[in-house]
Task: structure prediction
Amino acid sequence: MKLAVIGAGSWGTALAITAAHAGCGEVRLWSRRHEQAETMATTGRNPDYLCDVPLHEAVIPTADMAEAMRGVGAALLVAPAQSLRATARLMSPYCPAGLPVAICAKGIELDTLKPMSAVLSEALPQAVSAVLSGPTFAGEVARGLPTAVVCASADAQARETIVRAIRRPVFRPYLSDDVTGVEIGGAAKNVLAIACGIATGMELGDNARAALVTRALSELTRLILALGGRVETATGLAVMGDLVLTAGSPQSRNMSLGIALGQGETLADILAARRGVTEGVKTAPALRALADRAGVDMPIVAAVDEVVTRGAAPASALRDLLARPIRAEGWMREEG
Result:
């Protein structure tokens, strides 16, 4: 099967390499920049991301969307969350009806508060959507280190098609039909990882980080249930597993951003020094608004939003968080 990977950042590159090793006959890796595609084709490496990992010979870089989509049996859409709608529209003229398209971005659209599957259904209605998520660092996946993910879709055939394209002995996908739980969990954990990074940067200790991770999972679970997802998704790979990874390692863009904030750096300086997108920054205000609309209390998310969107000092946001009234523990409560 031929596969299109739309987006040549670190995650798109890692997925293209994985699919090639999994046995896809041809993997078209689309870049929005002609110079990046040309350099990849010439050197066999991505000059901007994962440059130490060679591309598989079956990976064919291109900046031509028509070429990327021609004759493929499925596509992985790996554009950043806030660019997903525009990228899906670029795909639309070349996407046949019924093509399985797996969303590999983790976020909530800021302008509409819609999850990525809803965005895709509007921008690319002829596709059959799936969501690929889980605890993944792109560099480890590209180097072939063992990884497990979740592929969620309401369409069983779409799930199976995506899994066949990417499954390797070292890359194990699990199946789910809980699209809501998988994609909301994947988006929210980025915001919550920033909070854990701030605590780490402020040198508050492992006790504080453990408390934040645990309470973050409680917040996540309440929101997932309120939006129609399932508790077993919240405690599985796509949510708890991803939260543990992202909130526990400086490899995470979101946690490392939080660490820098906790150490006193400004958000503008941190983002100016980065090449890749740190999804939690734009997701924070969208997630807070979505939780408010659903009537779900997410105090850690609110604290992160105060810091990254409204300019609050991390120490001040932390004080407000700790000053909240004492409540009973438990994700079943209406308030956190």
